[in-house]
Amino acid sequence: MGQYIARRAVLAIPVLIGILFVTFALARLIPGDPCRAVLGEKATDEICDAFFKRVGLDQPIPVQFGIYLRQIVVERDLGESFRYGRPVMDIVVERLPLTIELAFSAMLFATFLGIIFGVISAYWHNSSIDVATMVGANLGVSVPVFVLGLVLQYIFALLLRDTFLALPPSGRINPVIPNPPFYEVWGMQFEDGTSWATFLHFLSNFVFFNTLVTLNFKAFWDAVQHMILPAVAVGTIPLAIIARITRSSLLEVLSLDYIRTARAKGLAEIGVVFRHGLNNALLPVVTIVGLQLGYLLAGAILTETIFNLTGLGKTLFDAITSRDYIIVQGFTLIVAVSFVFINLLVDISYAFLDPRIRLS
Amino acid sequence: MTTADTALSSIPALAKSKEPSSLYKDALRHLMQKQSAIVGMVILAILTAVAILAPLIAPFDPELQLIGKEDGIKKRSAPCVHMLGCSTELPQHVFGVDANFRDFFSRVVYGARLSLVVGFASVTIAIISGTILGSVAGFLGGWVDNVIMRLMDVLLAFPALILAIAIVTVMGPGLINALIAISIVTIPMYARVIRSSVLTVKEQDYVLAGQSVGVPQFRILYRDILPNAITPLIVQGTLGIGTAIVEVAALSFLGLGAQPPTPEWGLMVSSERNQIFTAPHLVLIPGICIALVVLGFNLLGDGLQDALNPRLNRR
């Protein structure tokens, strides 16, 4: 088992270096003069020479790549945003939690409903329920995230606005509802600027977590309501994919001999389908869930923009429109690296779920 | 007629024996039996017709601003069809008018053109590059294979849209650049498909036979191996067109693809997205169009996947 994990981890290293190279090349390939992009149009040649020397741009490309690697890996520094005048890492600490919350809420929605629909569809194979679910899945896969988000806003914030189904069209939490960070509520003492402080800030930016640990249930409920539409918007495509995979995988398993044996010995149908069938049918679903989690991070760009959520995605969008390349570079790196790690986790969870893989 | 012939034709199974059918003939037959694939083909046929006949269908130039050219025209006015009871005093606009006084129906019609062209073009570029890379990697093996496929792994490590955004940031926004970016991020998918097919076909006897009589390597690759590795590519390509259309639309939505006043569906959704509560038709109509074209390609692709798979148990 350990050997299997180690092998997978080693395989990820060249990919990580490749990613670093791509993001490095990205910053070097951007048209225009980096000096005047940072210091302004009026910078003189002498000032620019000094600037190049300071940031290492006067060095040969391989040396520059070395400096970049060192900066990222050793110093964990993603550079400083032109637009905000702050280190990119700070912006990440502030805004990543929202994106993680969005991705997980969407995944929860997609996995839970997807498996239920898939099971129903497989169990009543070729019935009208099955056909309806699969037609729904086909439609779900085809609607682009940004269109679905706008349609949901239109339905739940406008058409249903005076009913109990009304949901807020944008924002993370109603600003009127107080949501003090947990370290203030608990009266924790710490020094600003330390990594401990950064970690506490990072944690408190998880709105669900923060409102729950401070027992602020009113704020929690409000946060949940704000999260429903974005989560549904991002989660619909994975939901449809998970439903289809669950269905085909369970159909295959349910036709096997041991299922007939289970039925023959008189097990309750529910036990046959869930304990014996679904347990063994979920392996492909795990892969899909893992892969989709990476795509959710990408879908977040569109969804956060539509729902006005200041997470990683919206920041990336704003950075593109304001040509803040350092942020584009840093965020691309973060998303790609998390994607690699998620895939690694999927591979490892595979081995836990299926002994055949870790033994081969 | 000889006695042997008479004897043979008297056996019913032999007398009525069917013509031998090719994989593609077979596939077409199975495709036509699948309702969802037919729905997909109908959607795509309609959209293609609209795209080709756009100048005949669209009543106005899609980029023409009608302010001052037409009486009573209002910005972002709702759809108005005289036959359906809309007052004849108002100008007729089937899908209404957009924020710049342009006929929205004409824009949507021309949008079909752009979407289909963009989808086909980006998939074609990706398939050609993917085929070259994948076949060379699979055929030559060794370090060439390693280098090419590790490169593909790196590209696959980025979620497609994020990498496309990064590429367009470098190349500068625009429809053509968005299209190229989407092709680049999808190359690994096709390269992998082709490589695995090539690896399977490479070991077949007829290829070994060709090699043993000294047929040049690349002739074997292009004449013997590739034609036999192309089936999975057709399926992937069909599904890929839908994805490419959505992703290019998403880039346009983010302001990185088509630029105004191009009648591109993603851009149309994006430029009116703040009007979702006041003029929802301007957002919903192009949105539904994108969904429809993607649905068409998805249904057709799924159908092809079943139809072209000879191992699949067909009921």
Taking the sheet with the most strands of chain B, its summary is:
none
Q: CATH superfamily assignment of chain B? A: MetI-like
**What is the largest interface, and how many residues per chain?**
A-B, 48 and 44 residues
The count of DSSP E runs of length 2 or more, i.e. the number of strands of chain A, is 0
Q: Would you kindly provide a written description of the structure presented here, covering whatever features stand out?
A:
The complex is a heterodimer of chains A (360) and B (315). With 360 residues, chain A is an all-alpha fold. Chain A contains 17 helices and no strands. Chain A has helices at 2-29, 34-39, 45-55, 61-73, 88-123, 128-142, 145-159, 182-185, 195-204, 207-213, 217-254, 257-264, 269-281, 283-306, 312-321, 325-353, 355-359. With 315 residues, chain B is mostly helical. Helices cover 67% and strands 0% of the residues of chain B. Chain B has one domain (25-307): MetI-like (MetI-like fold, Orthogonal Bundle). At the A-B interface, helix 1, helix 6, helix 7, helix 14 and helix 15 of A face helix 7, helix 8, helix 12, helix 13 and helix 14 of B.
Keywords:
heterodimer, A: 360 residues, mainly alpha, MetI-like fold, 17 helices, globular, B: 315 residues, 67% helix, 0% strand
List the helices and strands and how they pair.
The complex is a heterodimer of chains A (360) and B (315).
Chain A: H1 2-29, H2 34-39, H3 45-55, H4 61-73, H5 88-123, H6 128-142, H7 145-159, H8 182-185, H9 195-204, H10 207-213, H11 217-254, H12 257-264, H13 269-281, H14 283-306, H15 312-321, H16 325-353, H17 355-359
Chain B: H1 3-9, H2 12-15, H3 23-33, H4 35-52, H5 54-57, H6 104-140, H7 142-157, H8 160-171, H9 175-202, H10 205-212, H11 217-225, H12 231-253, H13 265-271, H14 281-307
